[in-house]
Amino acid sequence: MATARPPYRVGITGSIASGKSTVARRLKDRGIPVIDLDKVGHEVLRKRHEAFEPVVAAFGEGILGDDGEIDRKKLGAVVFADPAARERLNAIMHPRIRDEEARRIAAMAEAGETAVATEAALLIESGQKQRFDFFVVVGCAPEIQIARLMKRDHCSEEEAKRRIASQLSFEEKKAHADWVIDTSGEKEHTFAETDRLVDEIKRRAAERTS
Question: Could you give the C-alpha distances from 202 to 75, 176, 199, 206, in angstroms and in order?
């Protein structure tokens, strides 16, 4: 049996509270499947999944919640404050997340999908950009990003700034982009820009298969 041709791969990245999830949802609505690596990471961290025991062994049982599952807020408090701890966590998580991503992409290829997007905050920082045919960076003005994060996670301005500083800025990420979407404006503008992106992805995927 012939193996299905791999779909055209699109990477979507942006720092925390940048608006990339809004862009990803619009892509899905317009017919481009999206794999959210953050959600995949949640899954592999759960009990009886691939990353649970290695992460607990690395960071101790203090990161567990009352239900015995890894409490992501407790884990986040450790890794956001310590670059070495982030590197240790990433070394455990990234290979396991990529394995699950590959399984999902293979299934999508078999189902006939010609383009698939992967959404994640740290695609550049973790050296994964080269895995994609087309690379999209999403971001917004720093003051808007801080306000969004404070509202979303009910955190202080100081905490929001600290978490944002742990990742590359929008300006730094732009240098890696094939396509940039600025979400600083109204949501309707973000949707319109994303619709333009969808048309471009579909055109490129069609050219590759013609």
Answer: 39, 21, 5, 6
Residue ranges in the chain modelled with pLDDT below 70: 1-3, 210
Provide the token pair at 144: 């808007």
CA angle in degrees (0–180, nearest 5) for 195-17-157:
150
Query: Which of 3.40.30.10, 3.40.50.300, 3.10.20.580, 3.40.50.10330 is the CATH number of 9-33+114-202?
Result: 3.40.50.300
pLDDT digits (tens, 9 = 90+) for 129-160: 999 999 999 999 999 999 999 999 999 999 99
Give me the CATH topology for the region 41-112. Answer: Rossmann fold (3.40.50)
Which residue type occupies 173? K
For residue 139, the cross-strand partners are 182
